[in-house]
Predict the 3D structure of the following.
Amino acid sequence: MHNLLFGLKRLHLTGQQRMIAALRSYGLTPARFDVLALLRTAALPVAQSELARQLGITRATISKMLIGMERRGLVIRESNAPQRSRKWVSMSPRAQSLWPNLFVLARAAVTGALRYAFDVGPYGYMRYRTIVWLANDRLHALRARCADRATVMEPYWDFHPDG
């Protein structure tokens, strides 16, 4: 396995482990933290189905997750009818007041995972961002070369001067 991929794998697994430990005292998991992060950036309540789509999980999974979060007072779900109706989700005032603490915990977990996974010094975050940017740039160029339909860029041979 390439060093970069191995480092990213270690980063993900270590970050997940540290996030679980950091958020446990609040009754949260990394997945529930992701839900709150999505709700935090939304100006209006978000449809429950849209949350499921953005997180890449099934409607049943997001429903169970939100029921648990609602019981803990972290989200508010509203709908026009109690059964089989579109539900709208927003952060509760309690979750909004907890968010700064949760964000600090998450940032510390990610920073610790970066230090562990890549064995980086004080400028490790910038090195990590540079590595990810370069990997993304190379992947995008490769996809363009292969004329991947998901790539917005023109295929490599259409814009390359000597192609």
Remarks:
- Residues 121-163 form one domain.
- The chain has two domains: 3-119, 121-163.
- The radius of gyration is 20 Å.
- DSSP finds seven helices and three strands in the chain.
